[in-house]
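>> received
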Amino acid sequence: MIRILHIHTMPVISGSGINTYLSMDGMDRQVYEVELACAPGGRLIDLVQDSGMEVRIFRNLVQPLSPYRDLRAAMDLFLFLRKNPYHVVHTHNSKAGFVGRLAAAMARVPVIVHTVHGFAFHDQEPRWRQVLFLNLERLASHWCQKMIFISQPLLDWGLKEHIVPREKTVKIYSGIQLEHFHPVDGDEKNRIREKWKLRPEEAVIGIVSKLWEGKGHATLIEAVKELTKDIKDVRLVIVGEGYLQDELVKQVARLGLGDRVLFTGFQMDVSEIIATFDVAVLPSFFEGMGRVILEAMAMAKPVVASRVGGIPDLVEDGRNGFLVQPGDVKALAAAIKRLLTDKELAGEMGSRGRKMVDEKFNSDIMVRSIEEVYRHLLTRKGIRIGP
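>> returned
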């Protein structure tokens, strides 16, 4: 049995969290024993455990930069890995990627793999943090045999910044479970809208995202205010939870949009609420890929998103959606307005998006590709897989 430990800092249901879960859950349980290491207190833990997999809690594996606790986390992981041998350690995101790869390298784990979901040295960070995080990424790349990039722009960025040599990289798109995301007809759409007190005639704009900095919620709310000048029945549905909620609620009230914005809170089954959308939006300031775009596309929804990170790998501007510059309220409002007022164009873009997801972004393809990376690296180490 091949033992694999995935390390992910925050156990929240997010793009990287779901990617990690699907990467674990899709593995052949007759061949692989897969576990998760993470901080305490998140829904990702329940999801993993409900699927019959073990979760290891590390209390010092915190999200914010904390040199003391980060060092403690690395030592905790090192001691755990020395006592509990694994064939593969697979880390995710910057924080877990640094402390996890360091601990695994010190513990001499045979195979160490890291998935890049995004970089922490983006231009929304102060310059000193950009320099620090860039050099930490370069250092940590020496402690693994392979780095998986979830989009081509992210891979290009990593090579440009000399994070890792090309021969240590592989591109594996973050996939989704297509059986959970599919288009619905008009009757079903209206039935679900009724549940959420959304009227059939309303133009519904939706965003599914953590309510955290960098996701562009404030920009989208400003764009909705702009849209109300021309579109009478427009509603914004904000799906997710996070520390920005109170601030966003105040912004909505300040702009007089109280009856036009619905905060749904966290939703485990986002496919149902996405079904109510006419347009799906992700106006992020930085994004490794943006799997919520894939989920919306799989349901044949036209999308408007920022031209940042890995998003242009998903959205072909003018074909399956529109791309705008992050923070540009006018451009965002104009792109949404065009899709709301041109139903034929919106339908064509939604159909093209669904076709693209079908062909390239199935989670089964992702899991099999990751498994092939493991197989190749384990074979190089002389470790036999399977009977």
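>> The chain has a mean pLDDT of 94.
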